[in-house]
């Protein structure tokens, strides 16, 4: 891995992926605002996830639930009582730290060894008040996960979309946690975006579906996002790591510069949530099996991931630096075209008054088909470097020959090779190049047989 956190954070700010939030006021506690390139990349990540997990399947549907909902949801789910992290204070510098983030007994803030208060539990829920009166009865919470939206809507989705087991409900949206130690850029923040899916299945098939979703999700990182297999691994949680709801969880981990870190959790939640909400709401949250003519409470397998965390992992995985024969250094983000913020940049050789309108006409032609950018500022060499640094796979250059032969040059980000292509065939040529640079699809993960 060629970038460390500092290199990446600085590139992100310089090029417009993400900035420290409210920077003109000195920033705000590990909070980040996304810039023009960051939002494009996030949109792509969401789009690819939604396509793979919802639209390309016939067994998953989507919802969008409220961020602030009835607080009874969070009491029943266990978050009000159990969603805690162990907290200690450093007696030397007063820093508050997560006890499980302390290495070798040293304070991560001042380095003092073994000088901490007793450990206590800190609840991560963000509290707020709904309505004009701030009293106990108006307390509500910002959701700490999107998952509960799927459980409390289980019955609605089941009846309104006439589903049969197994089926899933998916959601993408913001979640909020009052993390004790946010940090490492956008890796851990207090406001983040999750993509979660609850897959409801017959309890007798749930272990097979858990196995299936671990493999299927791992495949997505390799094939949809182009992450190299050496940077990914599956790790099963030990019994001491399991969340309050989980019977078994595996993490899909990414090799960050600071070590392996969680990208996505694939949890077997059993019937914990449906039973908890059935008990608290008095509703029968079960499924009537028409073949067996009996009610059952489905088990749930949940792949859950953060958009921001995927974004930081992709930037690390893509970052590359090379030096050519003349000793010139080039920074390249080797992003797969589907996640690159810009797919094609259109660059006139110069701001010559004949070239600019021609280049703009080429740009107009490409815009309905690709995510594009037009750039005519500074030398062509510097513009190529700029596009390399933001991961643009293809640049199209309009030069003086274009005025005569109606052809342009396509320059490839990775090989830097250039080919001449007629403008009439440009959309097709670019489409073919993008297609050819997508990661190859491997064999499909086998779905468990019914009644297995
Ligand atoms: N519904 C299960 C659940 O929320 P989780 O492991 O706590 O499980 C799922 O969260 C994913 O959400 C994580 O794997 C991570 O990608 C992302 N995530 C969790 N907390 C985060 C934070 N503070 N900042 C950024 N992403 C976070």
Give an overview in words.
By secondary structure, the protein is of the alpha+beta class. It is 29% helix and 28% strand. The chain has 13 helices and 23 strands. The strands form 7 sheets. It has a 7-stranded mixed beta sheet. Strand 12 (248-256) and strand 13 (259-270) form a beta hairpin. The chain is globular, with a radius of gyration of 25 Å. The two termini are 42 Å apart. The chain binds glycyl-adenosine-5'-phosphate. The site of glycyl-adenosine-5'-phosphate (GAP) has 19 residues, from strand 10, strand 13, strand 16 and helix 9.
Largest β sheet strand count, sense and barrel closure = 7 strands, mixed
The ligands found in this model are:
glycyl-adenosine-5'-phosphate
> What's the number of helices?
13
The residue-averaged pLDDT reads 96
Please indicate the percent range of residues in DSSP E strands (runs of 2 or more).
25-35%
Q: Multimeric state of these chains?
A: single chain
Structural class: alpha+beta
Q: Stretches where pLDDT falls below 50 for ≥5 residues?
A: none
> How would the global form be characterised?
globular
How helix-rich are the residues, as a percent range? 25-40%
Strand order of the largest sheet: 3-9-10-16-13-12-11
Summarize this structure briefly.
With 452 residues, the chain is an alpha+beta fold.
Helix-strand blueprint:
Elements: H1 5-15, E1 18-20, E2 32-34, H2 36-55, E3 60-62, H3 72-76, H4 79-82, E4 84-89, E5 96-98, E6 120-123, E7 126-129, E8 139-142, H5 147-152, H6 154-160, E9 167-176, E10 191-201, H7 206-223, E11 232-236, E12 248-256, E13 259-270, H8 272-281, E14 287-289, E15 294-296, E16 299-306, H9 307-318, E17 319-323, E18 329-333, E19 344-348, H10 355-366, E20 372-374, H11 380-390, E21 394-398, H12 400-405, E22 407-412, E23 418-422, H13 426-436
Parallel strand pairs: 3-9, 19-20, 19-21
Antiparallel strand pairs: 1-2, 4-5, 4-6, 7-8, 9-10, 10-16, 11-12, 12-13, 13-16, 14-15, 17-18, 21-22, 22-23
Helix pairs in contact: 2-9
This protein binds glycyl-adenosine-5'-phosphate (GAP).
